[in-house]
Amino acid sequence: MKILLTGSAGFIGFHTAQALLARGDDVIGLDNMSPYYDPTLKEARLKLLEGKKGFTFIRGDILDRETVKKCMEGTDRACHLAALAGVRYSFEHPEEYIATNIRGFFNVLDEARIQKIPGVVYASSSSVYGDAKKFPAKESDPTDAQVSLYGMTKKDNELLAHTYHRLYGIPVTGLRFFTVYGPWGRPDMALFLFTDALLHGHPLSIFGEGKMQRDWTSVDDIVSGIVAAIDKNFDEEIFNLGCGRKEELMDFVKIIEESCGKEATKEFLPMQPGDVRVTSADISKAKRMLGYEPKTMIREGVPKFIQWYREYYAL
Ligand SMILES: NC(=O)c1ccc[n+]([C@@H]2O[C@H](COP(=O)([O-])OP(=O)(O)OC[C@H]3O[C@@H](n4cnc5c(N)ncnc54)[C@H](O)[C@@H]3O)[C@@H](O)[C@H]2O)c1
Predict the structure, then answer these.
(1) Given 150, 164, 292, 309, which residue is catalytic?
(2) HSE (side-chain half, CA atoms, 13 Å) at 154
(3) What residue ranges do the domains of the chain occupy?
(4) N or C: which terminal CB in the chain sees fewer CB atoms within 10 Å?
(5) Which ligand 1 atom is the nearest neighbour of the CA of 80?
(6) 136 lines ligand 1 (CB under 6 A)
């Protein structure tokens, strides 16, 4: 297939591109190399993709309709991962989030309608559940009370996709990712921040007084779910993609300490705006319909990240 992949220089986009290219798909990667976090990391990911058979990269913005139009021409699927993805940053930059995450997705979806693209897969998030009270969260649970502007933009994406499917019959699959981690991960996320602080001898800032629980999901597992969604191309579905296990934050920190061979100094801080106490995915629907089967637990996944981190930063 020929697949438009937005956000291809991003963390999940990079791994998705690798998987699609490895099985012989053509990938048109579109990314504006947003400076939200260190763009040199994005350039390094891109370097590994460029030159691979079947990969074409367009450095461009999903807010530029003409660019989206050109990139989409002749494709069999649009896989939309580009977004501003940080929860905390969304409080400081609401306009950018509304533009990139809502207008940007509209451009992709509307162009898919015009060009009659056979299927659209897009990234949603566990953030649509807000500070839910019932766990594990199921796709059919209420998602009408987000606690961050970021979460609201993802919920908006789901509504837009639903409306486009109803009105124009475009096949749309939304994937609610749960705290994704792994090699080439994002510098604004806990695993990167903790590892970076620990290996540089700085204290770890632990929010929520260390009492949070997360469904950490290895990027390899997420990619297997994305690829399955691209292939199955359901009419209209939403899937949780998590690991299906709820882990204590302090157990996660312990595994990081063991993998780094160092004990951290910890600074316990209150929850931050936009944080939720628990994320936990019911993944039975993805298992049943996508054949999704997470393979990597944090005990194996965290050391893989730390090994990458040490190599990449030559520590
Ligand atoms: N990583 C997670 O834990 C997680 C969890 C839930 C949902 N998601 C979603 O998954 C998707 C991928 O996330 P990620 O962790 O890889 O984030 P990322 O920031 O690494 O990747 C997003 C990419 O989109 C690009 N981008 C941003 N604005 C753009 C624009 N206007 N035009 C073109 N490209 C643009 C960025 O440069 C970046 O490379 C996002 O939609 C995110 O919201 C991620």
Answers:
(1) 150
(2) 31
(3) 2-185+217-244+280-295
(4) C
(5) 41
(6) no
Q: How confident is the model over 2-14, as a mean pLDDT?
A: 98
> Residue 55 above 90 pLDDT?
yes
Q: Assess whether 164 carries a catalytic annotation.
A: no
Q: Does the beta carbon of 90 sit less than 6 angstroms from any atom of ligand 1?
A: no
Q: Which tokens sit at 80?
A: 């939309």
Closest among 176, 178, 132, 128 to 156, alpha carbons compared? 128
Does the beta carbon of 9 sit less than 6 angstroms from any atom of ligand 1? Answer: yes
Rounded Cα–Cα distance for residues 210 and 130 (Å): 19
Ligand 1 geometric centre to CA of 311 (Å): 24
Closest C-alpha to 280, from 248, 238, 250, 236: 248
3-state secondary structure labels for all residues of 65-82: HHHHHHHHCCCCEEEECC
- What percent of the chain has pLDDT above 70? 100
Q: What is the Cα gyration radius of the chain?
A: 19
Q: Which of 5, 12, 46, 221 to mutate to test the pocket of ligand 1 (most atoms within 8 A of CB)?
A: 12
Fold of 2-185+217-244+280-295: Rossmann fold (3.40.50)
pLDDT of res. 133: 87
